[in-house]
UniProtKB/TrEMBL annotation:
SUPFAM superfamilies: Winged helix' DNA-binding domain (SSF46785)
PROSITE patterns registered for this protein in UniProt: HTH_MARR_1 (PS01117), HTH_MARR_2 (PS50995)
Protein name: Winged helix DNA-binding protein
Keyword Transcription assigned: yes
Pfam name, any one: MarR_2
Residue intervals of the HTH marR-type domain: 16-149
Natural source organism: Rugamonas aquatica
Length: 217
């Protein structure tokens, strides 16, 4: 076909493909930052991620949960946990909800290291913070919608998100600037205040979780 008859930009990938490509590029930049920090602290990226996942989880977590969050085998997760325990960054103890089970907890040194990891990735947060508030809210809404769609594939690990919490009440205040509600603090919730990772989250049952996420589906 004559190039003159081609439609302009006909080879441009679909918007959906460019969205995922952009997210992938951002993830690569952040992963590079994580590698740089981890190497300087004599950790590997998986160990650094485990410290981040344990941060703020005062009731501890199970090894199987860590493996699912990192999408690695239980054996690989166990190796990383053993290395972190040897470094004095975490310890094993009886789970608070089941004395027969073992949970993982951060030591004080581990908590301090986890906090430093967050600081090492602060460049990405600064970039997001530089966007106008309205664009930040719009972007957050779009990401929640994407997560909602991904959860339908059952490939997205569980999160301590507001939308997966038993205290979250979707659209309790329709038409208001803060249409949702948090039963834990008994206060309205705007989209801008919804959390991806809330330390006080209490997991909702599957049916409620699915209904909540439909807000963004």
């Amino acid at each position: 076909m004559d190039s003159k008859t081609n439609k302009p930009w006909q080879d441009t990938p679909d918007v959906s493909a460019r969205i995922i490509s952009s997210i992938g590029r951002i993830a690569s930049v952040m992963r590079s930052g994580m590698w740089e920090f981890a190497t300087a602290e004599n950790l590997n990226p998986a160990q650094a991620e485990i410290l981040q996942l344990l941060q703020g989880r005062k009731q501890g977590v199970r090894l199987s949960w860590l493996a699912s969050q990192l999408s690695i085998s239980a054996a690989s997760a166990s190796d990383s946990v053993s290395a972190l325990a040897a470094k004095g960054l975490l310890y094993k103890a009886k789970a608070e909800d089941d004395g027969r089970a073992t949970a993982l907890f951060l030591t004080d040194d581990g908590a301090a290291m986890a906090a430093r990891i967050g600081g090492a990735l602060g460049f990405a947060e600064d970039a997001a913070a530089a966007l106008p508030a309205a664009q930040q809210a719009e972007l957050l809404t779009g990401l929640f919608k994407l997560i909602a769609q991904l959860q339908k594939t059952e490939r997205f690990p569980e999160m301590r998100a507001c939308l997966s919490c038993q205290y979250f009440e979707a659209n309790r205040h329709p038409g208001k600037p803060a249409p949702h509600h948090c039963g834990l603090v008994n206060a309205p919730l705007s989209v801008a205040l919804l959390r991806i990772d809330c330390p006080e989250q209490a997991p909702a049952d599957p049916a409620t979780r699915q209904r909540n996420w439909k807000v963004f589906a």
